[in-house]
TrEMBL record:
Pfam families: DUF1523. It comes from Aliiroseovarius sediminilitoris. It comes from the Bacteria. The chain crosses the membrane at residues 159-182. Keywords: Membrane, Transmembrane, Transmembrane helix. The keyword Transmembrane helix applies. This is DUF1523 domain-containing protein. InterPro entries: Phage_phiNM3_A0EWY4 (IPR011088).
Length: 225
């Protein structure tokens, strides 16, 4: 039973971790190489990795999507540690509108203009911090969605994810508050009921033992005769 609980808790943790890793903002140090627009088919299950900014686009099976081609600094430990090596990364630039995840992004055209203005070459690089959410998966053609971009002095800039820090602090406070409420509710309401049920069961068990004892003594009296 304990192993089943451990498996269920591990699955719940992995699902929550995956959802949070997908929707929470991430920050990449990039050099913009190019931007382009391409028509994408949205008729299969991979549509979940594309935005649905309005009802009209939700009903379309294909639409034009803007992309940002970059060279980014490689990272590890979920992006917290930056390496000296570089890799290619392509982002999509789509409005999220009022839909999930709740970034309320309506400035795709303005963001694309900012990105175009930051294009550079290896000989004269312009570095920027690009904020995004989502995953890059070449197998199913999934692209992270760019949310914002800002120029920085160089590739060694220090990035502090304040939003993510505050999110997890608030989440920890909420979980602690809910746990305290649950423990208080259990001590006041559930534990007394369980104790009463246990005492009632002990009483029933004692009566059953007494009845069995009387029946055994009655059988013994008949055997003596």
């Amino acid at each position: 039973m304990r192993r089943i609980r451990l498996i269920i808790r591990s699955l719940i943790f992995l699902i929550l971790f995956g959802v949070l890793h997908y929707v929470l903002p991430q920050h990449d140090v990039v050099r913009v190489v190019n931007t382009y627009q391409e028509r994408q088919d949205l008729g299969d299950w991979t549509r979940i990795f594309w935005s649905k900014p309005d009802d009209q686009s939700a009903n379309l099976i294909n639409r034009d999507v803007q992309f940002v081609q970059t060279v980014k600094k490689k990272t590890y430990l979920l992006g917290f540690v930056r390496r000296d090596a570089e890799e290619v990364m392509v982002y999509r630039n789509e409005d999220t509108g009022w839909g999930w995840p709740f970034y309320f992004k309506f400035d795709t055209a303005s963001l694309q203009t900012e990105v175009d203005d930051l294009r550079s070459t290896p000989e004269n690089p312009k570095w920027a911090v690009l904020t995004h959410y989502g995953w890059r998966n070449e197998l199913i053609s999934a692209f992270p969605n760019a949310v914002a971009i800002r120029p920085v002095a160089g590739p060694d800039v220090t990035i502090i994810p304040w939003f993510n820090i505050m999110f997890f602090v608030v989440l920890a406070v909420i979980i602690g508050f809910i746990r305290a409420l649950w423990r208080q509710f259990r001590e006041r309401s559930i534990d007394p009921v369980l104790e009463d049920a246990g005492e009632a069961w002990d009483a029933v068990d004692a009566r059953a033992d007494e009845t069995r004892g009387r029946f055994s003594r009655w059988l013994g009296s008949w055997r003596k005769k």
